[in-house]
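agent: user wants the structure for Transcriptional regulator from Terrisporobacter othiniensis. delegating to structure tool.
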Amino acid sequence: MKNNIIKNPLIAAARSNNLSKAVESNVSAVILMEVKLNYLLQDEFKKNKDKKPIFIHLDLLKGLSNDVESMKFIKEYINPSGIVSTKSTVLNAAKKRGLMTIQRVFLIDNKSLKNSIASIIENDPDMVEVMPALCGEIVDRLKKEINRPIILGGLIDKEEQIIEGLKQGADAISFSKEELWNIKIDDEINIS
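agent: tool returned. relaying tokens verbatim.
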């Protein structure tokens, strides 16, 4: 699945009201944010997850706490492609249950970068989402410290920002602007 995301580096950040549109778009995967637990148990969600990889942002899930028991429930009754979280306990519980993990980190200064690198090494996620996406210049430094695909996300509202992030070495870009979900990425962009 990681290879599919890297081949098509577009990831939609969607909510339940536009999940179907994201799944039918040109993106390779979807990060589902601010969703209610009961939606994840409905047929609409089940049909969508069969069409495209969906990662549930557990920190933004309503109706279930972020602990080991909730991860057991998520795996048994929802079974998404993976989860997104900033929390070590959630990431580790998901990995133990065979779900792919995306660790989301927020970079605001050199200390947060150093702490994020240590946390990524400790948690060993499948991928890392770096926010905000406009800090793409840091991708090369991160890739030297961690051996994980890097997703840039946050504050993306133009096609040029997606292309610039990919040129700076990001493996994928996540964004919520629906108008960009069907853009075509030129083969000339050198994606590392």
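agent: one observation worth passing along. Residues 169 and 192 are 6 Å apart (CA to CA).
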